[in-house]
Specification:
two-stranded antiparallel ribbon, alpha/beta, 12% strand, 8 strands, 6-stranded parallel beta sheet, binds thiamine diphosphate, binds magnesium ion
């Protein structure tokens, strides 16, 4: 089978992408169950169905690159390499969570891997991503800032300000729009006259492209070339990744507004199922390898869940730690 079909990746790398997508899917299955047990004390927004976008995109990054994302950010943060157990612990509000339990599901961050923050205020992180890009530019690190946001976000003023500034200053930013066709309960066409969102980048003389966001290798290839452009000081790129969320907007949304058959059609193009079905076409990958990956991912998530649940709750006397700055 041709090298090109596999994006130049070897067996281990391909199985690694599959494993990461499965881990994110299973991780979120557990988050939902924890939520139903009232162990998640805030809202939660699952990215199930969209896993190929963060996994494909983050696989194209280099050490030192930074990432910002939305409240639908479990997948993006995990794709940067944040540990499963400490992410789960964060969602449970445990002291050993990645933000000491103070952030929760909507605010996962792990600076050690470049996951700079998950932002609940729609669009607020796009200027922030310009900031991390500017820092890289000023310090000459060669690092790139990747920024995930939804389709609805392209109607927020900060989207336009950020793309404008990034283009004028040639910032090393890759803007990745996760177009899942809905902003909360509204279909994109009911809020946005230009539904081919990649076209909006033209207003800022920024190159852009639309990709199949359920194809992990297509996302990876698009982000890799945008990253190369940014690292070569040629400026930012916008990528629109077409995808679909399996669940409602948040835990309380049954998504009854979706047209009949829409979810089923997208399930036929599920990013994990399609990649798992394609991989055995690779000369060095068998169906048993795929099964072994499924098994290993399930074990990893089960172990992470067990550890996170066993870790202690924060002590009341530490409740203001990490909240207020220490007096100078
Ligand atoms: C500034 C602001 N306005 C409104 C909201 C309420 N809100 C939360 S999510 C959301 C929809 C965002 O849609 P999209 O950008 O497509 O992201 P998705 O949830 O589909 O991933 C809205 C309007 C908010 N959080 N922040
Ligand atoms: Mg959306």
């Amino acid at each position: 089978m041709s090298e090109a079909r596999w994006g130049g990746l070897d067996r281990e790398a391909l199985l690694g992408l599959l494993r990461q997508m499965i881990e994110i899917r299973l991780f979120e299955d557990e988050v939902m169950k924890l939520f139903q047990r009232n162990l998640v004390r805030a809202s939660t927004h699952l990215c199930q169905g969209q896993e190929a976008v963060p996994v494909g995109a983050c696989s194209a990054l280099e050490p030192g690159d930074t990432m910002t994302c939305t409240y639908r950010g479990h997948g993006a943060v995990l794709a940067m390499g944040t540990p499963l157990d400490r992410s789960m612990a964060e969602i449970l509000g445990k002291e050993r969570g990645v933000c000491a339990g103070r952030g929760g599901s909507m605010h996962l961050a792990d600076l050690t891997v470049g996951a700079m923050g998950s932002f609940a205020v729609v669009g607020s992180h796009l200027p922030f991503a310009c900031g991390t890009g500017l820092a890289a530019q000023v310090m000459g690190t060669g690092s790139v800032s990747v920024c995930f946001f939804g389709d609805g976000t392209t109607n927020i003023g900060a989207f336009h300000e950020a793309l404008n500034l990034a283009s004028v200053w040639k910032l090393p930013v890759v803007f990745v729009c996760e177009n899942n066709l809905y902003g909360e309960y509204s279909p994109i066409a009911s809020t946005t006259p230009v539904t081919e969102l990649w076209r909006r980048a033209a207003s800022y003389a920024m190159p852009s492209a639309r990709v199949d966001g359920n194809d992990v290798l297509a996302v990876r290839a698009a982000v890799a070339s945008a990253r190369a452009r940014a690292a070569a000081e040629e400026g930012p790129t916008m990528i629109e990744a077409m995808t679909y969320r399996h669940m409602g907007h948040s835990r309380s949304d049954p998504a009854a507004y979706r047209p009949e058959g829409e979810l089923e059609r997208w399930m036929q193009h599920d990013p994990i199922a399609t990649f798992a079905a394609a991989l055995p076409d690779h000369d060095a990958i068998s169906e048993d390898d795929v099964e072994a990956v499924r098994h290993a991912a399930a074990e990893a998530v089960a172990g992470a869940l067990e550890r996170a649940l066993s870790w202690p709750e924060p002590e009341p006397r530490h409740r203001f730690d990490h909240v207020w700055a220490a007096p100078a």
